[in-house]
Design brief:
The complex is a heterodimer of chains A (491) and B (316).
Chain A: E1 2-11, E2 14-24, E3 29-33, H1 40-47, E4 55-60, E5 63-65, H2 70-76, E6 78-81, H3 93-97, H4 112-125, H5 141-154, E7 159-163, H6 171-186, E8 190-194, H7 198-204, E9 207-212, E10 215-221, H8 227-235, E11 253-262, E12 266-274, E13 278-282, H9 289-296, E14 304-309, E15 312-313, H10 319-324, E16 327-330, H11 334-338, H12 345-350, E17 358-359, E18 362-363, H13 365-378, H14 395-407, E19 413-417, H15 425-440, E20 444-448, H16 452-458, E21 461-466, E22 469-474, H17 481-488
Parallel strand pairs in A: 3-8, 3-9, 6-7, 7-8, 13-20, 13-21, 16-19, 19-20
Antiparallel strand pairs in A: 1-2, 1-4, 4-5, 9-10, 11-12, 11-14, 14-15, 17-18, 21-22
Helix pairs in contact in A: 4-5, 5-6, 8-17
Chain B: H1 9-33, H2 40-65, H3 73-86, H4 96-118, H5 124-143, H6 153-156, E1 161-162, E2 165-166, H7 167-185, H8 187-197, H9 199-204, H10 209-235, H11 246-256, H12 268-287, H13 292-315
Antiparallel strand pairs in B: 1-2
The chains are: A alpha/beta (491), B mainly alpha (316).
Chain lengths: 491, 316
């Protein structure tokens, strides 16, 4: 019914999806599987009219079509339920559900009784019995999702795309969602679905397509896959030579984390980090990796547990505390927590280390300029001038500026959260080489990455987080991607 | 000395040339259309008129840079003026007491705004709207609703001249110059841009966001207090009803000068140019004997037009 034909998408010269060809059939639940960054979301967004494809076509009921907007796709019967839901929080359930298609009476006024009657009947289709008068903000994520699905049904959608619908749901809520999905399948709707949770796929999917690094790997009936063979399909790539060899021997312990907890994000996390050691934190999205390192970096402090620096318990309540204690951090959210878009490269670079370029409260412009020049050379930052606004730089160059920012304070501990996300391969290789150099110089590195080859090749030790808890500690020389994923999969 | 270059000079240069050009065109037109515009006495008069708006505009630039707003300027001007006048009766206190009390009033109002914004987590618009009516009310209460007259000549002389230049203008120039240095060279100045540009990222880089914001509101309050003292000296009374809608002219000048209302972008130089532009337009309309009803309309159109041109330029 719906067919992605050789679909291709590139972002800023980086190819995120290449010539993916997949068929979707009515009354079938089709799971798209792959690691983070494999191109699943991009494929869905093209099918839903959010992104125009850069190559290939979408065929709808045998005809090539072009969707210029999500509205366009919706009017043809293709709806998407997003990872981050977009309800209007102060309108009630019925108003959200029938937004833009409210029943009206002869005077053109909204017929409220009819509105709620229709909303209730759509929800009933999904076996849910929500009070349609309550405002959307009071609903749980799972309930909002059901409303979104009902919304798609009300708009006569024949295809419903769901991007990680279960990421934020409890087991109980997942069961309710799956009941709704089963109903959709019976109604002949084609459901396309992404997830990182292995067990779910086998519970709900009829067919599975695997994407890897933006390429379509294969599509088979779900019963033809086993969890292990599916993981092998998702990962199955050779490690390339862009990683520097791990040669340093870690020294004394400089960071010890004891029973760090901020429920429900993470619980009872304990580990040590040594001088010159690169410690990898692996896990799926939502496993709590970012939350753990954010607690150490002061962005979102833990509620209990201890952080000891060189044996001394240290209070880290805000990023300034962490910086003062010698902890540098490059966050996963480059736009939200990294760059100040309107400020220049130079001012972004020196922001965290201004005291070392100041006499009293006054900035020493000459010192600042020479530090910028040094960093621009060391990190091969490509900018037209130090005064160029950072938002005009490519993602890779922005990331290098942020790395340089964190390193200007010469931190003893450097936290890198997904340092290579969304940047090109050249910049990635430079960041890998930098991690090697830092480790050789004695900096302890805490590396969070969803790219398992990075974790396997760059680190001395690997911790695997699963649903907010420490699931395993592995030696990168004696493990492989399959074993890491097995520990990372929710039980 | 290039080391003094303020952070956004390069990128805003074009924008400023635009305002300077508009300023020259308007001044040229006025010189041709009227006999009186290009005379020393009129230009000193313009300088005197713009000084108070100028001091306020520079002050509110700090707040706008952090992404906030201060609507209480006009009322705090009145309150500071009244407080200043109450301490300025001849023979009561040495000169620094009424001036100090006026400034202190402004600082306290500004700090209270800042505390409510940072600790209370209330939107700046709401906080300063509240301060606007509270400060006006306090000015009326402590003055008994009547102008506080009988100010010592030592203070009212402050609206006179020092050599060839009006003292209020010197105050404005000093405030603008120091603020320019502050934003360009002081760590705290840089932090103002960072907080306004991306608050979360600034925090992650170790900037103490509440402290920076509190400082911005406090400094804005101090300058508002100064404007209140200068105004009281000029009108020789503490007027509880003075300063109505002053915040609007000040914010308009800042925005015309290229400061973004969402924070993080802007400069003192731009604000000074915005103040000059508004001052020259006000003066020109007076000289051309345009009725004050029409003046209001023309001014509004020019403000929106200038910002529209600016945004169009920014997009291209």
């Amino acid at each position: 019914m719906l067919r992605a034909c050789q679909l291709t998408k590139t972002f800023g010269g980086l190819s995120v999806l290449q010539e993916a060809t997949i068929d979707f059939h009515p009354g079938e639940v089709h799971a798209l599987m792959g690691e983070n960054g494999a191109g699943k979301s991009t494929l869905m967004k093209m099918l839903a009219g959010l992104y125009p494809p850069d190559g290939g076509t979408i065929e709808w009921r045998g005809q090539p079509v072009r969707f210029d907007s999500p509205d366009d796709a919706l009017s043809q019967g293709i709806a998407m339920v997003h990872q981050e839901l977009m309800p209007i929080p102060d309108l009630n359930v019925a108003e959200n559900l029938l937004l833009g298609m409210e029943p009206v009476n002869a005077l053109g006024w909204v017929d409220r009784a009819e509105l709620h009657r229709q909303a209730r009947s759509w929800l009933k289709e999904l076996n849910t019995d929500l009070d349609t008068h309550q405002p959307m903000r009071r609903l749980s994520v799972a309930q909002m999702q059901v409303v979104e699905i009902a919304k798609a049904l009300a708009r006569q959608a024949d295809v419903i795309l769901m991007d990680e619908p279960t990421a934020a749901l409890s087991d109980h809520e997942v069961a309710a969602l799956f009941k709704a999905i089963t109903t959709l399948r019976r109604r002949g709707v084609a459901v396309v679905y992404t997830t990182h949770k292995m067990d779910e796929v086998f519970r709900v999917a009829d067919r599975i397509s695997v994407l890897r690094d933006g390429k379509w790997v294969g599509t088979k009936a779900a019963i033809e896959f086993s969890p292990d063979s599916l993981i092998a399909h998702m990962v199955g790539r050779e490690l390339t030579q862009i990683f520097p060899p791990v040669t340093t021997t870690p020294g004394e312990v400089i960071l010890e984390v004891r029973a760090l907890t901020r429920a429900p994000a993470f619980r009872q996390i304990s580990f040590t980090l040594r001088r010159g050691e690169v410690l990898g934190l692996a896990g799926l999205m939502g496993a709590g990796r970012t939350e753990v390192v954010s607690a150490i970096g002061g962005l979102a402090p833990a509620t209990s547990g201890e952080i000891c620096l060189r044996g001394t318990p240290t209070h880290v309540t805000c990023p300034a505390d962490a910086i003062a204690a010698g902890i540098g951090m490059v966050t996963e959210d480059r736009k939200g927590l990294g760059i100040i878009p309107a400020l220049s490269v130079e001012h972004n670079l020196t922001l965290a280390a201004l005291p070392s370029f100041s006499r009293g409260p006054i900035i020493d412009a000459a010192a600042e300029r020479s530090a910028t020049q040094a960093a621009t050379t060391d990190f091969a930052i490509k900018a037209s001038s130090p005064h160029q606004a950072i938002r005009e730089l490519s993602g890779g160059n922005q990331q290098k500026v942020l790395l340089a920012r964190a390193l200007l304070n010469r931190p003893a501990i450097l936290i890198l959260d997904e340092p290579t996300r969304g940047i090109d391969i050249g910049a990635k290789a430079e960041i890998y080489a930098l991690i090697g150099r830092l480790s050789a110089q004695g900096t302890a590195v805490l590396l969070v990455s969803s790219e398992l080859p990075e974790i396997l090749s760059l680190t001395h030790r690997i911790l695997v987080l699963r649903q907010g808890e420490l699931a395993a500690e592995l030696d990168p020389r004696q493990t492989n991607q399959e074993e890491i994923l097995r520990h990372a999969m929710p039980r | 000395m290039t080391a003094l270059t303020p952070p956004t000079l390069d990128r805003n240069l074009l924008h400023r040339l635009g305002i300077v050009a508009v300023l020259f065109v308007i001044a040229g037109l006025l010189s041709v259309l009227t006999d009186s515009f290009a005379t020393a006495s009129n230009l000193t008069n313009v300088a005197r008129q713009i000084s108070i708006n100028g001091i306020l505009a520079v002050g509110v630039t700090f707040v706008l840079l952090t992404g906030g707003v201060d609507l209480s300027l006009g009322s705090v001007v009145a309150l500071s003026g009244v407080v200043c006048a109450l301490f300025a009766h001849p023979g009561d206190h040495p000169l620094f007491v009424p001036i100090g009390m006026g400034l202190l009033t402004g600082v306290l109002c500004g700090l209270l705004n800042g505390v409510l914004v940072t600790r209370g987590g209330i939107a700046p618009f709401i906080v300063t709207l509240g301060m606007m009516t509270v400060a006006r009310g306090l000015a009326l209460i402590i003055s008994g609703g009547k102008p506080v007259a009988d100010m010592s000549p030592a203070l009212t002389n402050l609206s006179g001249d020092l050599g060839p230049l009006p003292i209020p203008l010197l105050c404005f120039a000093l405030v603008a110059g120091l603020s320019w240095l502050f934003l360009g060279r002081f760590r705290l100045g840089r932090h103002l841009y960072a907080v306004g540009g991306n608050e979360q990222a600034a925090r992650a880089a170790g900037v103490s966001v509440p402290q920076v914001k509190l400082f911005a509101y406090g400094l804005c309050g101090l300058l508002t207090g100064l404007a209140g003292v200068v105004l009281a000296a000029r009108i020789t009374t503490g007027q509880p009803n003075a300063g109505q809608a002053y915040e609007l002219d000040a914010i308009a000048a800042v925005v015309i000068g290229g400061t973004s209302l969402s924070g993080g972008v802007g400069s003192v130089l731009g604000t000074v140019l915005g103040v000059l532009l508004i001052g020259v337009i006000n003066n020109g309309l007076d000289l051309l004997s345009v009725s004050s009803y029409y003046q209001a309309v023309i001014k509004g159109v020019i403000i929106v037009g200038a910002v529209w041109l600016d945004r169009r330029q920014a997009r291209s």
